[in-house]
Amino acid sequence: MRKIFVSSVRFLVNKALIAGLILIVSACGGEPASTEPGQSLVRVNGEEITVIQLNDELSRARVQADQLEQAKKQLLESMIDLQLMVAEAQQNKLDRSPNVMRAIERAKKQIIAQSYMQTTLSQIDSPSDAEINQFYEEHPGLFTQRKKYTLAFLRFPANRMSEDLQKVIQSAKALSDVAQWLDKQQISYLRDELIRTATELSPQLNARLEKAVKGEMFLMDENATSLFILVKNVEADPVTVEAIRPQIVTHLLNIKRRETVQAEVSRLRAAANIEYLHATQDTPVTNNAPAEASVMLPLTDQQDDATALDNVLLQNESIERGISGLK
């Protein structure tokens, strides 16, 4: 519990740093802090830190109920320290330095744009029963004909792949053959085993495993990682629409959100007058937002073996993110 609390406090300190950025922005913009009676918690050289500011940071940090009181004290002290640093920076005119002003402007734009998109996304309707059932029926490999795989693997940096290693992999009878070679070459690797269903794997790995049989070994590369995988077992593991409904709902919602964002950006671009100045050969010349490739996304984005199936990826999956245990 202590470890969790310390982690939470560290997170709060980071959020307080963001609050400091907002304080700087407010100072530059000339907007005064709240002066409502009873709202001020502390006054630092005349600058007030209010209940509203503290509560806002607490809500963003999502502090556990049993940590709330201590977190309030920790965060308030962090906000005091931050205000002192902000005041000293302003005294030394650092808030007017070009790099700081550019960073503030970037942060303001990101915050405002995020607020706009959140407002737009809040108008999206939840998937209907018909949409849920249609998705379920159209993907039997993920549901009615779902499989469960027991996978053992070696993971090593892709840049350590060589012609010699490829030969070892091609002739290997077991993972240990490759592991022994990596040991001799002093190449670091991770060896582990996990059990995953098709709904927990990336599209790339699902496609490769679709016709895989027990005992099969194969190599897959993704970005900076190479995976030498042994299929230790394959078994049927169908799931009903009722059991998987929450994950399908989340998955379809995220697809709608992504499509909404793309459509809104395209609409804004089409309505805008965009002029590319000092154009080069690599400069885009169209007002249309780039189309994103349509791929089947896994229904989970587990960070470790204890994480439930409750998240859906918002972007194209890699093998490393798709296989939950490969950290």
Which labels suit this protein?
327 residues, alpha+beta, Chitinase A, domain 3, 3 domains, 10 helices, 14% strand, disordered N terminus
How are the SSEs placed, and which strands pair?
Blueprint: H1 2-29, E1 40-44, E2 47-50, H2 51-61, H3 68-91, H4 98-121, H5 129-138, E3 147-157, H6 163-171, H7 175-184, E4 190-197, H8 203-209, E5 217-222, E6 225-236, H9 241-271, H10 319-322
Antiparallel strand pairs: 1-2, 3-4, 3-6, 5-6
Task: Briefly summarize what is shown.
By secondary structure, the chain is α+β, with helices and mostly antiparallel strands. The protein has helices at residues 2-29, 51-61, 68-91, 98-121, 129-138, 163-171, 175-184, 203-209, 241-271, 319-322, and strands at residues 40-44, 47-50, 147-157, 190-197, 217-222, 225-236.
Provide a descriptive summary of the structure in words.
The chain starts with a helix and ends in a 5-residue tail after the last helix. The chain has helices at 2-29, 51-61, 68-91, 98-121, 129-138, 163-171, 175-184, 203-209, 241-271, 319-322; strands at residues 40-44, 47-50, 147-157, 190-197, 217-222, 225-236. It has 3 domains: 2-116, no CATH class; 144-236, Chitinase A, domain 3, CATH 3.10.50; 240-322, no CATH class. A 4-stranded antiparallel β-sheet has the order 4-3-6-5, covered by helices on one side. Strands 1-2 form a two-stranded antiparallel sheet. With 327 residues, the chain is α+β, with helices and mostly antiparallel strands. Helix 1 crosses helix 2 (51-61), helix 1 packs parallel to helix 3 and helix 5 (129-138) crosses helix 9. Strand 1 (40-44) and strand 2 form a beta hairpin.
